[in-house]
Amino acid sequence: MSQEPTAADAPARAPARIVDAHHHLFDLDLRPRGWLHPEEPVPDAVTSLLGDVAPLRRSYRLDDYLADALPANVVKSVHVEVERHDDPLAETRWLQSLADEHGFPHGIVAYAPLEDPAVGELLQEHVRFPNVRGIRQVLNYEDEPALRFTSRPLLRDPAWRRGFSLLASRGLSFDLHVWPSQLAEAAALAREFPETQVVLDHAGVPRERDEAGLAAWRRGLAELAGQPNVAAKVSGLGMVDHTWTLESIRPLVTGVLEAFGVERCLFGSNFPVDGLYRDFEGVVAACAAIASELGLSEGELDALFAANAERVYRL
C-alpha cells in the first residue's frame, strides 16, 4: 500500500487538531454475521465501490483506530454505523461503553431502518445513549443492480419519509450516503425538512470522474448545498479512486469546498475503509495540502478539520 502523497508534495500547514467526523469500528468477536466476516459473501455493491475488501475482513477495534489516528493529532471522533442491521442497539451499546471507558468516540451516528413503521421506538432507544447524535441509512440506488445498497429507492418512499420526519424532534441528524444521481432528490428532502441537520457522506461519492460525470456531480452538489441545513464531509475519496494522487483528488476536494463553503465542510478519515488505499497521515496530509493551495486561514483550517464537526455533531 503506497504511502504517497505526503505533506512534502505541496506546501501545507498541518491542522493544529483534528475532529474526525467519520470513522468505523468493528469487533468480529461480537458480530454474529455480516460481510466483514471472512466466511461470508461480499455483496456486489460493496465490491463495486471498495474493490478488494480482503484486508478489511478483520476486527478494527478502538486500539487499532487510536494507533492510526492519534499520531495525526485526532482529539475527538464521530463513529458512523457499520451495517449492524441485525441488532443496531447492540452496536450503539458497545460504542457507548467504549466512550464511557476511553472517551472515544465522542459522537455516535447509529443505524435505523426509517421505513419501518416501528422505527420511532428504535430511535427512542438510540437517544437514551448520551453520545448518539444522528442516524445513517445507506441509500445508494441505481438501475444497475451492482450499484444498489437498498432493494428499492427509499428517498422517495412515503414510509421512509415518515420515519425521516421523526428525526428532528429527537435531536437527531441524518448522514446521507447516496450516488451523485440522487443529490437533487436529496436536496428536495432537505428542503422539505429544514429542521433536520443533513450531513452528506464522502462528498457525494463521485464515482464517475470523466468530464460529464464530474459536471453532473457538481450540479447535484450545488443543488444540495442550496439547502442551509446540509453540511458535507470531505471523506471517503479513496473509495472512488483506489490509486488516488494529490492531483486526482484535488477537483473532488475543491468541488465540495466551493459548493458548501469551508463553514459547512467536515474532514473525515473514513478509516479503516480508506486505509485500503492510504495511511491515515497520508489522507490528512493530502487534504491539508489542498486546503493550503486554496489559501485557507488558520481559522478556516481549524473549521474544516475540527470546529465544524464539533458544531454539527454537538461534541
At a glance:
Helix content is 37%, strand content 12%.
Key structural traits:
eight-stranded parallel β-sheet, TIM Barrel, 37% helix, disordered N terminus, alpha/beta, single chain, 11 helices, 315 residues
Reported for the largest beta sheet, the result is: 8 strands, parallel
Task: Indicate the proportion of strand residues.
Answer: 5-15%
CATH superfamily: Metal-dependent hydrolases
Strand order within the widest sheet?
1-2-3-4-5-6-7-8
Q: Count up the helices.
A: 11
Low-confidence stretches: 1-10
Number of strands: 8
Any overview of this molecule?
Helices cover 37% and strands 12% of the residues. The chain has 315 residues and is an alpha/beta fold. Strands 1-2-3-4-5-6-7-8 form an eight-stranded parallel β-sheet. The longest helix has 15 residues, at 88-102. The protein has one domain (7-312): TIM Barrel, CATH 3.20.20.140. 46% of the residues are buried. The two termini are 33 Å apart.
List the helices and strands and how they pair.
Elements: E1 18-23, H1 44-50, H2 62-69, E2 74-80, H3 88-102, E3 107-111, H4 119-126, E4 132-136, H5 158-164, E5 173-176, H6 183-192, E6 198-200, H7 211-225, E7 230-234, H8 237-240, H9 246-260, E8 265-267, H10 280-293, H11 298-312
Parallel strand pairs: 1-2, 2-3, 3-4, 4-5, 5-6, 6-7, 7-8
